[in-house]
Design a protein that fits this description.
five-stranded mixed β-barrel; three-stranded antiparallel β-sheet; 38% helix; binds zinc ion
Amino acid sequence: MAVVDTEALILRTYNLAEADKIVVCLTRAAGLVRGVAKGCRKLRNRFGASLEPFTLTHLTYYERENQELVSIRQTEILKSNFNLSSDPVVVTGLAYLGDLLIEFSPPHQTNELLFRMSAACLDAIGQSPNDLQSILRYFEVWLLKIEGFMPDLKMCANCHRAFTSEEVVFMSTDLTLRCHECSNGRGGSVSKGLHAHLRTTERLSPGKFAEGAREVPNRTKRELAELTHQMIGRVLERLPRVKPTFTH
Ligand SMILES: [Zn+2]
């Protein structure tokens, strides 16, 4: 039996028996982890409060070889994010973020960048709940990128020519970007505005991206949402272990 000590973002919980819960969380040390927390539903229990969805928690858990469910023993709240739970729109957005993490992350696979990016997005939503939609777009783009599905935004996948800021590019069904000549204008077009907006995700934090997005035309934001949702839909169809359960 191994003991693991790690930071974790609680994503979802299910009640189990009378006083227990199954907790699904994204941990810094071991990626997506499912665990049982015994006794955490007893009245006014600090253990239970630290396992509310979207709490950033320090967890200690025990794992046994060949068992997917770990046993959560000790917790300490690092950041509760409880203030966000009063706004149903934000709660829906956070649940969507959690669902995507559960769909995309293979269990027990460490991914430091994914953990930090997710925690940063959650922080940004906490600081500026009105920017929820932009931060969710940022999260989707980075999730796709970290999991290896985001195409190279700088050059044509076929002729390797660097895109200029003046051209419309095209996304083919294999989720790569091509110039007009190479694609013959086929595939989903990515407008100049969208391409530029998309590229700002590469160099900005989620909060700064969302701040900049306030000046971006709604048309471009809609285009970005359509693009990420299309890509996520295609990726989830391809992943054999999951089926899409999210809505938007
Ligand atoms: Zn080309």
